[in-house]
């Protein structure tokens, strides 16, 4: 049994639509569409979340998407499978500013920060022309052939930290 619920909103600012699998309205679930949808006062989309059996889950796209109010631009998208952040070959979390510029990317496998061929977490600061990259393996800071954490400003590395299996080995300011 699938039921939809539209909670009363006293402020008339946000409309929330929830889909449940059970009549007690405890298990968020919807096949082929988001189970949680939030709209702004002007009916612009704010949030979409896909749930299966009360866990964020979607195979063919992000399970959670948040939009800027009064815009069609995505603030944040997150890819989940069976309730865990998870995506192969691309970031599971992407955060953008109001212009659509990427500010942060995070790679996850089965709920843990993890990436084999590059940093698993990258923070961009375009206004400072800088970025920070962090290499993770199975949820721990780790990199065997270089620094696991680097801060780069104006194209130059200004700080490096070396980690193996989550244990810091050395840090250097340049």
What distinguishing features does this structure have?
174 residues; mainly beta; 13-stranded antiparallel beta sheet; 0% helix
Q: Any chance you could write out the topology, listing elements then pairs?
A:
Layout lengths: L2 E3 L8 E7 L15 E5 L4 E5 L1 E2 L2 E2 L7 E4 L6 E5 L1 E2 L2 E2 L7 E4 L5 E5 L1 E2 L2 E2 L7 E5 L4 E5 L1 E2 L2 E2 L7 E5 L2 E9 L2 E7 L1
Q: Return Rg in Å.
A: 20 Å
**General shape:** flat
Q: Give, in order, the helices and strands.
A: EEEEEEEEEEEEEEEEEEEEE
Order of strands across the main sheet: 1-2-3-4-7-8-11-12-15-16-19-20-21
Taken as a percent bin, the fraction of beta residues is: over 45%
Would you give an account of this structure?
The chain has 174 residues and is mainly β. The strands form five sheets. It has a 13-stranded antiparallel sheet, with no helix packed on it. A two-stranded antiparallel sheet has the order 5-6. The protein has a two-stranded antiparallel ribbon with strand order 9-10. The chain has no helices and 21 strands.
Concise summary:
With 174 residues, the chain is mostly beta strands. The chain is built from no helices and 21 strands. The protein has a 13-stranded antiparallel β-sheet with strand order 1-2-3-4-7-8-11-12-15-16-19-20-21, with no helix packed on it. Strands 5-6 form a two-stranded antiparallel ribbon. It has a two-stranded antiparallel ribbon with strand order 9-10.
């Amino acid at each position: 049994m699938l039921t939809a619920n539209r909670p009363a909103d006293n402020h008339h600012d946000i409309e929330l639509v929830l889909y449940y699998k059970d009549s007690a309205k405890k298990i968020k679930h919807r096949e082929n569409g988001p189970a949680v949808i939030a709209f702004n006062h002007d009916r612009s989309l704010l949030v979409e979340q896909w749930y299966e059996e009360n866990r964020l889950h979607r195979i063919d796209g992000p399970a959670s998407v948040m939009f800027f109010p009064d815009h069609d631009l995505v603030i944040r998208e997150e890819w989940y499978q069976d309730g865990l952040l998870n995506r192969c070959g691309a970031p599971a979390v992407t955060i953008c500013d109001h212009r659509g510029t990427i500010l942060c990317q995070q790679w996850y496998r089965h709920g843990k920060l993890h990436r084999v061929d590059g940093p698993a977490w990258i923070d961009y600061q375009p206004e400072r022309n800088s970025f920070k990259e962090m290499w993770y393996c199975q949820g721990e800071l780790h990199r065997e052939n270089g620094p696991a954490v680097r801060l780069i400003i104006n194209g130059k590395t200004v700080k490096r930290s070396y980690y193996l299996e989550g244990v810091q080995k050395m840090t250097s300011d340049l």
